[in-house]
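does this look right to u?? zinc ion version
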Amino acid sequence: MTEYRQDDERHGRGMAAKHSRITQILALLGVLAMALLAPTASQAESMRVTLLGTGTPNPHPDRFGPATLVEAGEQRLLFDAGRGVTIRLNQLGIPMREVTAVFITHFHSDHLVGLADLWLIGWLPPNYGRRRVPLRIWGPEGLGKITAGMEQAYATDIAIRVKDEALPRSAAKFDVNEYGEGGVIYEHEGVKVTSFEVNHGDLIKPAFGYRVDYAGRSVVISGDTRFDQNVIEAAKGVDLLVHEVVAIPEALFAVNPAMKRVEAHHTTPEEVGTVMSEAQPRLGVLTHYVLTSGPGIPPETKDEVLARLKTRYSGPVVAGHDLMAIEVGETVTVAHPR
Ligand SMILES: [Zn+2]
Ligand SMILES: [Zn+2]
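got this back:
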């Protein structure tokens, strides 16, 4: 005799038994749904990397200034703050106050011009803002001078809003953390950030790249650099290597010899191929596209850049674009945008 029948006899009503069975089925479905929706251990331990801007100083409509978001656990770490970074964060539905910390690679303006915007509108009352603490920022020596300059440049705006909108003055500040040499510069709730010096050219110092480690996953961001062994060392066996690239059409050097200097500050596709083939990341992604052109000389396409890279590297690599997101977990895959 089944439980159903016992229940049926006890209550003398078929409906009650049916109800109880439906309840059981619903409960089972609920458990199944929870199991499907709950993050698995591997998802919980994954990082998500979003390329907020893959551009350069060039005011390109599709490629905003350099900025890469790394989400690890509850933390949102922003690497560089180029043009349009606030627009990209807003497109992801991330309020500026939820940026846990900012890390600057070097002081070329294309990596910094979005910082004042992030800092100041992050303090405003709309939902995209409402930061009530100073903006925490890490970077090489010299960063404090830049943020102090910004505090001075916007002192009038800050004074007006403190009086007019009763915004807290204490939050209209930077919490600056400068470092001299590379090494572990940030450790918080299982997230570790290590900076390493890179070679962006003899006169462009300081210049650093970053590595983020969290729950056994790792991401390396090259920063702006020419071919550099330091990137290879930092990225050996890393899950994701985000690397800059320069591709200047051969014909352009003849009409504009200064382009040789530009190329010498960055990493050519073939050199990125060498970096990746020596570091063997689980996935490589290209960003910070220095793609130049001249009269009658079109810039190289991303496909051409990838083809050049692949002459030296046959592993997994993708051409990044603004808002491309990569899930770094059990597998390292290009994810659906939010
Ligand atoms: Zn740059
Ligand atoms: Zn640079």
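Confidence is low (pLDDT under 50) at residues 1-16. idk if thats expected tbh
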